[in-house]
Amino acid sequence: MSSTDTRPTSPRRLRDLALLGGLFALVIGGLVSLAAATGWEETLAQLTKLGPVQIALLLGLSLVNYLFRGLRWHIFATRLGLPLDFPANLRHFLGGFAMSVTPGRVGELIRMRWIARETGWAFERTAPLVLIDRASDLAAMGLILGLSLALAAGGIALALPVAVLALTAAVIVTRPALLAGLATQFYRRTGRLPRLMTRIRRAARSLRAFSHPQTLGFAAALGFVGWLAEGYAFHLLLGWFGADLGFWTATMIFVFATLAGGLTGAPGGVGGAEAAMVALLYMDGVSPEIAVPATAVIRVTTLWFAIIIGLTVLPHAEAKSTRTDSQGAP
Fold this sequence. Notes:
Keywords: Cell membrane, Membrane, Transmembrane, Transmembrane helix. It is a multi-pass membrane protein. The protein is mostly helical. It has one domain. It has 13 helices and no strands. It is globular.
């Protein structure tokens, strides 16, 4: 076995599964309470409007998001120089979804472990993949939020600053010299976190591989289309429930709630995203008997669907990387 092998123990896996189950139960409990408060008959009446075709369409649009972002991950991995083909990179990307609801989503770093086993690359060399992937998501969602704010009939007061914050973070991460400079200035002024700042500077040097305008432009387009697909799914869902707010308003609510959930620090934004989505729909005139089931359905067909895909791919990714590691990384 390679020295980079940090395979989680059985108790740790049980803990992750317990966390996943607990969060799911917490969210379902909250939504059930809201449904009970607004009336079961009205909520169930909305849910019965969804047939197999509608559910398949919602899941299909989520798959568009995952596959486009998976292709983006492959492009970044190729630019970094990883000797892996598209199926391997897609396996790592999708398998990481299983850890989406770990605190701070740090569980998604399991992708780095798989890469280390299969290629022998140390974490420090592959860490920029995580940074550029997160930055690309922030950039895409920030652009969508800003565009939605400009085109929607009504806007969310906090949408503009959130969009600016997302785009600012994306710019910092995708500008290696700026990121390294900020890390240096932080350490000089505070004297804190020297190891972390050193790692950030090293990662910034590696980020130069992604600074080509064509790479960043194509990656931004993939993320934009991917997240827009899920916004469109939310628009369709609201229309089926009889609350047609317009495409851009529905997209703005979906993206803003997703970002807001992430800012709460809760694993996967669970709880915060749902609360924000229900509140924003209510503020836009959508009745609770529509807002609650719409929120529940869109979160199941986006976040929890991704987790199911991740849990399905994870055993294969784990076994594949273990076999490669035992044979010696290329």
